[in-house]
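stuck on this fold:
=====
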Amino acid sequence: MATYSSNDFRPGLKIMFEGEPYAVESSEFVKPGKGQAFARVKMRRLLTGTRVEKTFKSTDSCEGADVVDTNMNYLYNDGEFYHFMHPETFEQHQVEEKTVSDVAKWLQDNAECIVTLWDGRPIAVLHRTLSKQKSLIPIQA
């Protein structure tokens, strides 16, 4: 994976920090009048969802995380795991109940979700909300 210096940290960037994947939520580069420049970074731990604020020196760097956001369809819940399927490859993934707990009440059969995979293992599930809108202009065929 690529290596990113603290100057390159931008919101949405996923990095490896202390052996775990994190998503950068905000980054502020500070260059004081006296002393070394640094970056004040707010990031979210992808495995647990906790937020962390960390200060990096301008010379510090981190590896990019091998994290992939994949569109998947929700299949069913067997009581212990939630099952998702990739719509193109038909590959199925089991996700633990604690990982899905935030979005579990909105899941319906065949609902399209974004599943975050780290080293091929699901670590987060985001529910994609779809809404129907009425059109004021009638559509003619």
